[in-house]
Amino acid sequence: MSHKDVVVDQARDVDTLSELINLDSYPLHEPDSTAYRECVARIRTQLAEDGCAHFAKFIRSDKVEQLRIESEALAPQAHYHSNQVNPYATEDDASYPEDHPVRRFQSFSNGFVAKDLIGEESLVQRLYRNKIFQTFIADCLEENKIYEYADPIAGLVINVMPENTTLPWHFDTNEFIVSLMTRRPEQGGDFEYCPNIRTPGNENFEEVKEVLDGDHRKVKSLTLNTGDLQLFKGRYSMHRVAPAKGQRLCTLLGYAKEPGMIGRVKRTKDVYGRVTQAHIDAEKDRRNDELVG
Q1: Strand, helix or coil at 9?
Q2: What is the pLDDT of residues 201-238, one digit of tens each?
Q3: Full-prediction pTM beyond 0.85?
């Protein structure tokens, strides 16, 4: 790519930020400013405390309605999946006791609009690809760089939850996820999570079981409004969406700390109804964090 192309891309990214983001509260366009450093510091503090950061009113108020309309128009294309799943999206394992978390299956019933169905000029696609936005998220995570989730289906998706659907307790495949609420339900639908309930090499099955048994003393709850952004370390914090009245739409922007991140075949086929050759090839690679799922 030539220097001229780089300059053009940077200018386009700045224009996108000005159009979409509440730059008064989140000055992504001024990375050398005191305001930017203070903003990043606040988010890092939230992440350090419980692995979850909330960016209230991240999207400009005059764009929130367009954001909602776009996501509602795409919602009918969601693939719906109803199943019984454990928190790790793995098969049953009879070598464990019946009440073990690996054998605790819960009702999963909601839909996802896959990345390849979301238009390239949609607000969420433009935000997802924006290099300045990516640098901002990396700064918040104290990473030098993050990479777009290489998964051709799951890199950018809209989670569609009509009333009476469920997204039960689970861990994410990737270490962190960026979520943008694109339609808040009429009531309920809060995001509930157990901060850092497991760590690399330590599943902490005992406390996971306590939460599944109904002990929510360590569970936190977050209400997201349309246009709010969330940064969440979901590989280590078990989480779910509480029951809601009315439809809930939340766009998930998938990034990774390393390039080439692709979801597992079973989970991808369950959630999206299809896989690609890229998923099959990636299945040969194994994680090294010694965690289930």
Answers
A1: helix
A2: 999 999 999 999 999 999 999 999 999 999 999 999 99
A3: yes
